[in-house]
């Protein structure tokens, strides 16, 4: 793990959990797996604070533990990649809201905020929130929403200790991961009405958490569908979406390539849906265009019954990675540099003189841009020696080439640095305007309390006028700046996710 990545992890922990948890997390990031006493020795924090910090990190699945050689002690390991996922929480909520509705979004939001929870407690909490928002709901409705999330594998059961040891060994069988506990609606309704205590919940000790892998599967599919929608049109995107959906019936979600999917299945689904008539009318043409696309997503696997197609996820993400890097070169330098990069990519190995001829760029500029890309590690060089037949001096050939995996890893480091800069800038904006922000929060709290007590609008207006017009202008500017930074943060994370998927398939 790089130093820049460590700085990003440190800022996320500081922002969400405070300086003590951040100090414990930073130590584990820097020194790796360690027991409690080592953490206490090097961080110089009180033992109680370290234990509390580790409990918080374990609760949110940011730290794991295993038994030490001494079975009474545990070794703790930080999961930095899991910490980075905290930046994607808004995306997870938005994804669930679009697919399942507001109740499901609240369920996911509560689990993300608390790390894990029992189904009964979660259902009751969501009902309480819906009532505050004056939304009609019932125990059975929220319970069905929870079940839907479990069936779709967005929620998964937490492992639990199977024996009584000083350091518990948390385990769970695969067939237990998605078994929903038997919960009586009447008992939950009685607890919700205050007729029964929380001790009566039927699923005590059965905890649920987020299955991030399932969310990432959807995000990966969205990248593919969006790519074909932008390249071709909405009908092509719909075709790819249905193809991916049918793939999961026959193939593991993260396989490099799928088992053959009969193309007539896709056609039958489109015919039944009756929503994409143009796709149905020009079905064969869409299949041919997508098959010939340079992303290499699908290839024909057979001729019987109209043919079957295989989906090649690994090939597609190799092309997506190439396109992403090419776009970065274009934006960071210029179109001539991007042309040189594409030329080296197409030729695989090429001499400097050939670049000048084939790229149709003046020799001096082509040389400057080639060595600029080399200096920035977008290109690499390889030297080949050819000996002379008359025992003369050896002749050396210099060839430019691209190591995509190396370039992707370098680009990821740049993305982490950008994230760090964005988060630092956000903290700076909040710090220099802390007085006005705190004042605004205090005024909003007083106004809210007065509304709840039934105060008149004139009284509330008097309170709100404590914020002067110049202060309102400053607050509006801060709000616009923070929104822009948050948007850029999410966009950078999209690039990180795409590049991580590419590396996962390697």
Automatic annotation (TrEMBL):
Entry keyword Repeat: no
A cellular component term, taken from the record's GO annotations: RNA polymerase III complex
Taxonomy, superkingdom: Eukaryota
Chief location of this protein within or outside the cell: nucleus
Keyword entries, A-Z: DNA-directed RNA polymerase, Nucleus, Transcription
Residues of the RNA polymerase III Rpc82 C -terminal domain: 177-316
Record InterPro entries: POLR3C_WHD, RNA_pol_III_RPC82-rel_HTH, RNA_pol_III_Rpc82_C, RPC3, WH-like_DNA-bd_sf
Domain RNA polymerase III subunit RPC82-related helix-turn-helix: 8-67
Localization of this protein: Nucleus
Entry's Gene Ontology BP terms: DNA-templated transcription
Residue intervals of the DNA-directed RNA polymerase III subunit RPC3 winged-helix domain: 325-402
Molecular function terms from GO: single-stranded DNA binding
Family stated for the protein in its record: Belongs to the eukaryotic RPC3/POLR3C RNA polymerase subunit family.
Purpose of the protein: DNA-dependent RNA polymerase catalyzes the transcription of DNA into RNA using the four ribonucleoside triphosphates as substrates. Specific core component of RNA polymerase III which synthesizes small RNAs, such as 5S rRNA and tRNAs.
PANTHER family recorded: DNA-DIRECTED RNA POLYMERASE III SUBUNIT RPC3, RNA POLYMERASE III DNA DIRECTED -RELATED
Subunit structure, as described in the record: Component of the RNA polymerase III (Pol III) complex consisting of 17 subunits.
Protein known as: DNA-directed RNA polymerase III subunit RPC3
Lineage: Eukaryota, Metazoa, Ecdysozoa, Arthropoda, Hexapoda
């Amino acid at each position: 793990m790089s130093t820049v990545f460590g700085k990003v992890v440190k800022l996320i922990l500081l922002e969400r959990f405070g300086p003590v948890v951040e100090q414990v997390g930073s130590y584990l990031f820097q020194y790796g797996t360690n027991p409690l006493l080592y953490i206490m020795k090097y961080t110089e924090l009180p033992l109680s604070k370290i234990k509390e910090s580790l409990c918080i990190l374990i609760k949110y699945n940011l730290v794991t533990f295993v038994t030490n050689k001494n079975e009474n002690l545990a070794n703790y390991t930080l999961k930095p990649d899991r910490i980075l996922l905290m930046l994607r929480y808004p995306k997870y909520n938005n994804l669930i809201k679009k697919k399942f509705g507001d109740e499901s979004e609240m369920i996911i939001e509560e689990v993300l905020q608390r790390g894990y929870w029992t189904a009964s407690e979660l259902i009751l909490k969501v009902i309480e929130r819906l009532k505050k928002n004056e939304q009609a709901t019932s125990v059975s409705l929220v319970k069905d929403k929870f079940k839907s999330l479990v069936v779709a594998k967005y929620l998964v059961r937490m492992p639990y200790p199977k024996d009584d040891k000083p350091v518990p060994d948390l385990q769970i069988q695969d067939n237990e991961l998605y078994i929903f506990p038997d919960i009586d609606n009447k008992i939950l309704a009685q607890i919700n009405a205050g007729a029964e205590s929380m001790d009566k919940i039927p699923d005590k000790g059965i905890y649920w958490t987020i299955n991030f892998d399932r969310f990432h599967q959807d995000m990966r599919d969205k990248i593919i569908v969006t790519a074909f929608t932008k390249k071709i049109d909405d009908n092509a995107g719909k075709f790819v979406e249905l193809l991916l959906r049918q793939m999961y019936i026959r193939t593991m979600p993260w396989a490099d390539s799928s088992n053959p999917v009969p193309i007539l299945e896709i056609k039958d689904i489109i015919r039944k849906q009756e929503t994409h008539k143009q796709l149905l009318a020009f079905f064969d043409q869409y299949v041919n265009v997508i098959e010939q696309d340079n992303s290499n997503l699908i290839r024909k696997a057979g001729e019987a019954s109209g043919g079957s197609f295989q989906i090649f996820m690994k090939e597609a993400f190799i092309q997506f990675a190439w396109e992403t890097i090419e776009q970065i070169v274009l934006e960071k330098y210029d179109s001539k540099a991007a042309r040189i990069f594409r030329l080296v990519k197409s030729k695989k190995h090429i001499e400097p003189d050939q670049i000048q001829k084939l790229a149709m760029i003046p020799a001096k500029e082509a040389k400057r841009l080639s060595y600029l890309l080399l200096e920035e590690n977008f290109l690499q060089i390889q030297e080949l020696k050819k000996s002379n037949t008359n025992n003369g001096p050896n002749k050396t050939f210099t060839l430019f080439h691209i190591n995509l995996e190396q370039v992707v890893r370098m680009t990821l480091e740049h993305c982490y640095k950008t994230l760090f800069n964005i988060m630092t800038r956000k903290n700076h904006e909040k710090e220099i305007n802390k007085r006005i922000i705190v004042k605004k929060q205090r005024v909003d709290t007083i106004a809210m309390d007065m509304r709840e007590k039934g105060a008149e609008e004139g009284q509330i207006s008097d309170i709100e006028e404590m914020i002067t017009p110049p202060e309102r202008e400053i607050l509006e500017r801060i709000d616009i700046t923070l929104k822009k930074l948050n948007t850029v943060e999410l966009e950078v994370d999209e690039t990180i996710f795409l590049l991580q998927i590419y590396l996962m398939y390697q």
